[in-house]
Design goal:
- The complex is a heterodimer of chains A (about 140) and B (about 300).
- Chain A has about 140 residues and is of the alpha+beta class.
- Chain A has 2 helices and 6 strands, in the order H-E-E-E-H-E-E-E.
- Chain A has helices at about 1-20, 75-80, and strands at about 35-50, 55-60, 65-75, 95-100, 110-115, 120-125.
- In chain A, strand 1 (about 35-50) and strand 2 (about 55-60) form a beta hairpin.
- The relative contact order of chain A is 0.21.
- Chain B is of the alpha+beta class.
- Chain B has a domain at about 65-85 and about 115-255: Beta Barrel (Lipocalin).
- Chain B contains 5 helices and 9 strands.
- Chain B has a 9-stranded mixed barrel with strand order 1-2-3-4-5-6-7-8-9.
- In chain B, a hairpin with a 4-residue loop joins strand 7 and strand 8 (about 230-235).
- Classes of the chains: A alpha+beta (about 140), B alpha+beta (about 300).
- Chains A and B meet through helix 1, strand 3, helix 2 and strand 5 of A and helix 1, helix 3 and helix 5 of B.
């Protein structure tokens, strides 16, 4: 029984340590953080390196063959630079796979989780880039 | 029973492994920065001061420092979300008006900085986005230059007293200012104390929306622990709104070797674009009452 209790406490502690969503610039309350939407073969139309958050605009075909215009935000420019992003990381015409925490409004907007490039490399967002919706930049405290 | 323990242990190990992988990925990004050619015009978070650098120089803060969230491995602020002392009735009334971004998201907040890039004002600008700071010493004052929003504060060191007539109705009163009126003195060879009052009452004292009055009295204590380490504590006394002193922050800074900072500002036109295509369509928390209209701040 004591062992069970110890394990439960340990698990809660570990998950709590990893759940740092509240530390983001603004909360994740607007987004569905359960499962990211996967936008395969998305064509980047614009990458705006702006504050408070860089924006990625991309077109992607849905299951019906219709083109959806998506917009997603990242952490701040200064935070994104800490994990390797720059204003030239994405360019119009790039075809990538985007993982997005979609807004609860169900409009085609959301918070970037990560991007997979055609060569297989992956770059994550800073503040919600981990696949559980927590921070990816665990080595770069905010 | 043993299988249950093994399962739990495997879960813990899995979570720790994932954490290590993510950390490793990000550390790899930083190591890449180390190997790249460096420009003396650029801030490199991976170029960090080593150790304490030796004893602090006496009565000298001059130079550029990295703060929390700068990537320079600065210890986090000990007061991330300060708990205020009990609010007075007026304090409660003012606090209830404010809808902070952390709870309401960009679409639902009425934080004037988030919506319009209005200045944080002091003291919030010393605790929010305080990633970089420079001190410039002049014969009669200390300039405190903040990376975020490219702004400066003037702290007079010529012995003058703080004004006592800010915000009144008489002919000789002074106007409230976004950074207030500040005086400073060296308490000892390593501790610089700044006193400020006359704050713009429309600004928020904290990111969480806690208010201050024009008569709030804020004390900052900068202590240079070593050549490379600087600590700051901020305390606000505002009896109109709080029953006790409000500990606003306990922040650490590290010396930046090449003395460069990135540019980081809120640009009004960029914020309007952000809100139009991203922040407002994303909406606010549907469970919260939205102060920006019955569409929840969303586009039609």
């Amino acid at each position: 029984m004591k062992m069970k209790l110890l394990m439960a406490i340990l698990l809660v502690a570990v998950f709590t340590a990893n759940d740092t969503r509240l530390l983001a610039h603004h909360g994740a309350a607007a987004y569905s953080m359960d499962q990211p939407v996967v936008l395969k073969n998305a064509t980047v139309t614009e990458f705006l390196w702006i504050n408070p958050h860089p924006l990625i605009k991309a077109d992607v075909k849905n299951d019906k063959g219709e083109v959806e215009n998506w917009t997603m935000e990242m952490g701040s420019t200064v935070s994104a630079q800490l994990v390797g992003w720059s204003r030239t990381t994405l360019n119009p015409g790039d075809v990538v796979t985007l993982y997005v925490w979609q807004a609860k409004t169900k409009l085609p907007v959301g918070r970037l989780n990560k991007v997979e490039f055609s060569d297989g490399t992956v770059m994550r967002d800073t503040q919600t880039g981990a696949d559980d919706g927590g921070r990816a930049d665990t080595g770069v405290r905010q | 029973m043993r299988n249950q323990y093994m399962g739990a242990l495997a879960s813990v190990a899995g979570v720790l492994l994932l954490t290590a992988l993510v950390a490793g990925q990000n550390n790899q990004g930083q190591n890449n920065q180390n190997n790249a050619p460096h420009s003396q015009w650029k801030y490199y978070p991976s170029d960090r001061s080593v150790g304490d650098g030796g004893p602090a120089p006496k009565r000298d803060l001059t130079g550029t420092w990295a703060g929390p969230s700068s990537g320079a491995n600065v210890p986090r602020s000990k007061i991330e979300n300060p708990r205020p002392p009990q609010l007075t009735a007026l304090g409660q009334q003012l606090f209830a008006r404010n809808k902070p971004i952390g709870k309401y998201s960009p679409a639902g907040t009425n934080d004037p900085h988030t919506r319009y890039c209005d200045p944080f004002g002091f003291p919030q600008n010393m605790t929010n986005e305080i990633r970089g700071i420079t001190f410039a010493t002049m014969p009669d004052r200390m300039l405190i230059l903040l990376q975020y929003m490219d702004l400066w504060r003037e702290v007079w060191t010529d012995g003058r007293a703080l004004p006592t007539n800010v915000g009144g109705r008489g002919p000789n009163t002074l106007d409230p200012k976004y950074n207030g009126y500040s005086v400073g003195h060296w308490e000892d060879d390593y501790t610089f104390v700044v006193e400020t009052t006359g704050l713009m009452p429309s600004t928020w004292a904290t990111r969480g929306g806690y208010p201050h009055s024009v008569d709030a009295h804020v004390t900052e204590r900068y202590h240079r622990d070593s050549k490379n380490d600087l600590s700051l504590t901020i305390t606000m006394v505002d009896p109109k709104l709080y029953s006790q002193p409000f500990e606003l922050g306990d922040i650490h800074f590290r010396w930046i070797p090449n003395q460069m900072l990135d540019e980081f500002s809120c640009i009004p036109s960029e914020v309007q674009e952000y809100l139009k295509v991203m922040g407002d369509p994303a909406g606010s928390d549907p469970n919260e009452q939205n102060p920006q209209g019955n569409r929840g701040g969303r586009r039609p």
